[in-house]
Amino acid sequence: MNALRGVVIETPRLRLRELTCSDAAFLVALLNDPDFLHNIGDRGVRSEADARHYLDVGPFASYAAHGFGLWCVERADTAEPLGLCGLLRRDTLPHPDVGYALLPHARGQGLAREAVESVLAYARTALGMDTVVAIVSPANERSMRLLATLGYRKTELVTAAPGADPVWLFFPTTPPNSTIPGSPVTEGTRGR
Ligand SMILES: CC(C)(COP(=O)(O)OP(=O)(O)OC[C@H]1O[C@@H](n2cnc3c(N)ncnc32)[C@H](O)[C@@H]1OP(=O)(O)O)[C@@H](O)C(=O)NCCC(=O)NCCS
């Protein structure tokens, strides 16, 4: 099953897998959620065709260039897509950063933390990354709380994209106190 579905990480409640064009409708919903628009930005995705273009220039381009990117977070038992979580490589930041967003009904259950923690562990163990940072808009208290539980601290305001508003750059200060036994799915079992 994993080989067919591009599964990257499995946790007790979640699976993180590569996005596909079949995720277009889910992406239209997530990328137009008011909190996504407010905290992350407007990706201009209003239709499934827009979502497929977003996939081409965003996640698919990143998978091809780096072997990682934003992945679909889905419920392990039902495969319902709940959000995005993964790693981004931006020219404007000194290290890869972790990105995440869940649909509103999936919040408040510790699922974002479970996904982010598993991605940080995967970055360390499977990708050999020694530092993964995060960026958060100054009003996004919920996201900053999540990062604090993972040992992250804000350092300075930075501009992550030309013309964008400043965001807080978070660095890990302590090794995460892992409670989630996320399992990376090995390269050999993955399929595209
Ligand atoms: C930021 C975001 C991902 C945080 O999601 P979240 O569900 O609040 O985060 P967590 O997974 O850390 O969950 C914490 C909440 O789950 C609760 N919870 C329930 N069961 C839990 C469990 N087993 N483990 C941990 N927390 C649990 C906590 O008490 C906490 O509740 P509270 O918010 O009422 O205090 C979410 O708000 C979101 O998608 N926002 C829009 C996009 C966005 O801003 N992304 C971040 C950009 S930097």
The side-by-side strand order for the widest beta sheet comes to 5-4-3-2-1-9
Q: What's the story with the biggest beta sheet?
A: 6 strands, antiparallel
The set of bound ligands, ions and cofactors reads: coenzyme A
* Residue fraction in strands: 15-25%
Number of helical stretches of at least 4 residues: 6
Tally of structural domains: 1
Features of this protein?
192 residues, alpha+beta, Aminopeptidase, 6-stranded antiparallel beta sheet, 3-stranded antiparallel beta sheet, 6 helices, globular, binds coenzyme A
Task: Summarize the SSE layout with pairings.
Elements: H1 2-5, E1 7-10, E2 14-17, H2 24-31, H3 34-39, H4 48-66, E3 70-75, E4 81-88, E5 97-102, H5 111-125, E6 134-136, H6 141-149, E7 152-158, E8 167-172, E9 183-184
Antiparallel strand pairs: 1-2, 1-9, 2-3, 3-4, 4-5, 6-8, 7-8
Helix pairs in contact: 2-4
Bound molecules: coenzyme A.
